Amino acid sequence: MMLIGIDPHKSTHTATAVDPGTNRDQASIRIDGTLQEYQRMLDWACQWHQRQWAVENARGLGHHLTSWLLARGERVVDVPPTATARVRQLSRGAGRKTDRIDAAAAACVAAVQGDARPVQPENSTDALALLDERRSNLAQARVRAVNQLHALLRALLPGGAPRDLSAAKAEQLLQTVVPVGPAETTRQALAADLITEVRTWDVKLKDNAKAMAALVAESGSRLTDTPGIAAITAARLLGRTGNPTRFPTASAFAQYAGTAPIEIASAGRAHHRLSRRGDRQLNAALHTVAITQIRMPGTRGHAYFQAKVAEGKTPREAQRCLKRRLADHVWRTMVGDERRRTRTTGPGGQPGATTASSAVGPTPTADSSDKSLPGPAETEPTRLHQTP
User: Fold this and answer.
1) What are the boundaries of the region Disordered (predicted)?
2) Which of 251, 284, 306, 344 is the most exposed place for a label (fewest CB within 10 A)?
3) Closest by alpha carbon to 153, among 180, 190, 182, 181?
């Protein structure tokens, strides 16, 4: 097995072949960032029938090349730049930095099984992440247009416009305006343009929601079986999480999402506070689900919240406890879906896995195992709290 490390740049890439047995540089090639040059590098690498590519920052500057290699059946691992920097520091040469040395360092990290991670081809989860980012941009553009429209209508109408302003309502209000003078005429024309923009954003947001719902349904995710999780929220949870199996435990996922409380010591006693770390958009999605379940009598989330309040917790503390349990439930559901999908369509499935049946349950209720909250939840991925 020959390891081929790649140091990517915007316009050029350097590939260095390293023998994993001796960690010696065997050959190197430098190419431009074009499809023709990609093929030339692959032809050069074909002299080693068994090979693996180690791309530094495969999700950054090396993303396009990595996707191209994966599409042609090549095996690729991602090596973070911090790992290659450590290899250079520990090797001879006083930490010298060249493209060829960086490429060899990436291969060395992959050889010793350091921080290198296998890269999988892009799938529907990556598409959902793109749609979620696009939706955020569309929503921000719509809010900006509505705010500008509010400012213009405030100057044209006594009392301005109501807060829940839609394009249709703004058009009705604008029809009542009889402009006097060039300033009011200009405001009316600008308001009409903004109404057209708001309608455009509304159409794009609807199309975005339909695309999200189609991809979520195609993925077979059972997140939408949970009360409070519709297609758009499920798309954000899936897109922001990526492959859920990269988190070894539910606690690791909760920490990534920022729902795991942090223990601190103050005035001689230990207590917990809210974590402000983690993926804030993922945290916001879990917050939306928690608030929705709290407002839905009959759901297990509502019962869990009421039980925590009855124990003496404040509503905000009870809400944080629910978010923590929801993080566990969401992670288990996504892991179950991923394992079921792997068993069905991909290699390396585990026929004996049982997470698929255990992850379908709704939000856990407050039973005796929940008395320790807030705090780390149990890490067993195949169980879900059930009402005794």
Assistant:
1) 332-388
2) 344
3) 190
Tens digit of pLDDT per residue, the chain (388 long)? Answer: 888 988 888 899 999 888 887 778 888 999 998 999 999 999 999 999 899 898 888 888 889 999 999 988 899 988 887 777 766 665 555 555 677 777 877 777 776 656 678 888 888 899 999 999 999 999 999 999 999 999 999 999 988 888 889 999 999 999 998 888 999 999 999 999 999 999 999 999 999 999 999 999 998 899 999 999 999 999 999 999 988 988 999 999 999 999 988 777 666 666 667 777 889 999 999 999 999 999 999 999 999 999 999 999 999 989 999 999 999 999 999 999 988 887 776 543 434 433 333 333 444 444 433 433 333 333 333 333 333 3
What is the domain count for the chain?
3
Residue 49, CA distances (Å) to 43, 45, 52, 207 in order: 11, 8, 10, 46
In a domain, 141, yes or no: yes
- Domain match, 170 and 238 both: no
Do both 68 and 167 map to the same domain? no
Q: Are both 308 and 213 inside the same structural domain?
A: no
In this structure, the answer to whether residues 251 and 353 fall within a common structural domain is yes
Q: What is the CATH number of the domain that holds 60?
A: 3.30.420.10
Answer yes or no: is 214 within a domain. yes
Q: What is the 3-state secondary structure (H, E, C) of the chain?
A: CEEEEEEECCCEEEEEEEECCCCEEEEEEEEECCHHHHHHHHHHHCCCCCEEEEEECCCCCCHHHHHHHHHCCCCEEEECHHHHHHHHHHCCCCCCCCHHHHHHHHHHHHHCCCCCEECCCCCHHHHHHHHHHHHHHHHHHHHHHHHHHHHHHHHHCCCCCCCCCCHHHHHHHHHCCCCCHHHHHHHHHHHHHHHHHHHHHHHHHHHHHHHHHHHHHHHCCCHHHCCCCCHHHHHHHHHHHCCHHHCCCHHHHHHHHCCCCEEEEECCEEEEECCCCCCHHHHHHHHHHHHHHHCCCCCHHHHHHHHHHHCCCCHHHHHHHHHHHHHHHHHHHHHHHHHHHHHHHCCCCCCCCCHHHHCCCCCCCCCHHHCCCCCCCCCCCCCCCCCC
